[in-house]
Amino acid sequence: MENANLRKLRIRGSLMIICATIIWGAGMAAQSAGMDYVTPLTFNAARFFIGGTIALGPALFFLKRQKATMSQNNDKSLPIGKGTFLAGIICGIVLCLGINLQQFGFAAGASVANAAFITALYVIMVPIACLIFFKQKTPVFLWAGVAVAMAGMYFLSFAGGFNPSIGDILIFFCAIAFSAQIIIISYFSPKHNVFALACVQFYTVFAVSMILAFIFETPSISALVAAGPFVLYTGVLSSGVAYILQMKAQKTAKPTVAAVLFSFEGVAATITGWIVLDQFLTTRQILGCALIFTAILVAQIPAKTKKQRMKEQC
After folding, report:
1. I want to staple 256 with a disulfide (CB 3.0 to 4.6 A). Which of 127, 183, 189, 305 is the partner?
2. How far is the CA of 201 from the CAs of 74, 250, 287, in angstroms?
3. Can you say how many angstroms the Cα of residue 103 is from the centroid of all Cα atoms in its chain?
4. Nearest CA among 4, 33, 65, 288 for reference residue 195
């Protein structure tokens, strides 16, 4: 029964990640378009201030409930305290690095298609990092899913050769930061209240980005107003909703499985371009979408425990 319940939780988590990737995929176009009006650090400071404010309400609600039930031994809610604050800052610093590298990549001219593929390199970076740093072995079927996802992203994003630009190089380093973020979220999210963790993470990104913006940029209210629709979309949905879904999902989803599921972001970006921008889907892109769908299905195959394998051998 416990395994069945865990299986249900992981399926629900997978659906949450898919929803998050749909939001992020559609938001890539908004991130790119926003660079026509406002500078990268200012853009991210604004969007994560909005995201933090969205998470603040639920975080305060759970904190108030925690104080009211502190004397009850049967209170099973995750605690909110100094540990949550520290964990949120760590998550926020890593996310701040990744999201600003990505935004500077867009500002430097990286296309949405290239950005979708390069960012998705965390699909292979995460299992390698888990193996090297945490000795977490990835099942063969998951490596197969990683390979299929990478092939899908290639067909989805590129029509021909690939000549990396400065923007593409920045987004490559962004992928490294996002790989770290996926692993860190998998570690912290089961230990802390999701809304409180998200709130601290978002406000950390806001604070660091805002400080750097005043040092290296000239923040402008009029520019933010001009970029309003793009800031609001990425602030409310890409930050406030999608990252909270990621945290809730990664309470049960393993980092490698989550990384494969996040490859759906490229599919979402392509389909959004087809529906909203009338960008016709080529045969290569349709093949890429099909491969990523296959990778997602492969990633859902439950890994057998050592005990189950021993039973089969007997």
Report:
1. 127
2. 29, 15, 37
3. 14
4. 65
Are the C-beta atoms of 237 and 27 separated by less than 8 Å? yes
CA pair distance 258, 265, nearest whole angstrom: 12
- Condensed to tens digits (0 to 9), the pLDDT of residues 45-76 reads 999 999 999 988 888 887 777 666 654 444 44
Report the chain's mean pLDDT, rounded to a whole number. Answer: 79
Arithmetic mean of pLDDT, 147-155: 75
Q: Is pLDDT of 85 > 80?
A: yes
The rounded distance, in Å, linking the Cα atoms of 216 and 97 is: 15
What's the pLDDT score for residue 276? 64
Looking at per-residue pLDDT, the higher value among 138 and 42 belongs to 42
Dihedral Cα 231, 236, 240, 245, nearest 10 deg: -120
- Count how many residues are written for the chain: 314
Which band of pLDDT confidence, cut at 50, 70 and 90, is reported for residue 257?
A: confident
CA–CA dist 180, 182 (Å, integer): 6
